[in-house]
User: Fold this.
Amino acid sequence: MSSIVLTIKSPEATTSSVKRHSSEGIEALREASNLLDALANGTAKGSVYAQSSSADPVAASGTLTLVSAIATDVAVIGPATFTFTSTPTLESHVEVDGADDTADAAAFAAAINAHSTVSQVVTATSALGVVTVTAKQRGVTGNFINISSPDSTITASAANLADGTGGAADAESSYAFGE
Assistant:
């Protein structure tokens, strides 16, 4: 099976055009089709980038392993720095007790998934003290999302998410409309 990834850049494109629930998939497809029609007939300006691949794109991922994390430890995911604390007050705080790595990792994953910015580009799960961070967009672009921690109690699998394949690295064509 092959795949095609379309990226549409246009002043007429809005984030509301992207639906997240399967029941809204048909409506999202109609909105994308209408925008492509407008670009093709000249009533809209923008660019369309098409990447094709003989295989489905794979999302990049990485892990952060907690071993007795303590309050004041930090971890970075993309543009956000998460601070471990016993009294969280900000969305970038992670409630930690330092005695239960599994519970602390679950709290960290929950904080990632609830963060207003980071949750737009990654999702997180946890098991046995390990947080797995996965890019929401499949393909190589997720390989550029950094993960790190300067603290010895939190170990990142690499400096960035890894193993994202397909998408932008494959054959690409670019089309400009009305520009």
Remarks:
- The first strand starts at residue 3 and ends at 9.
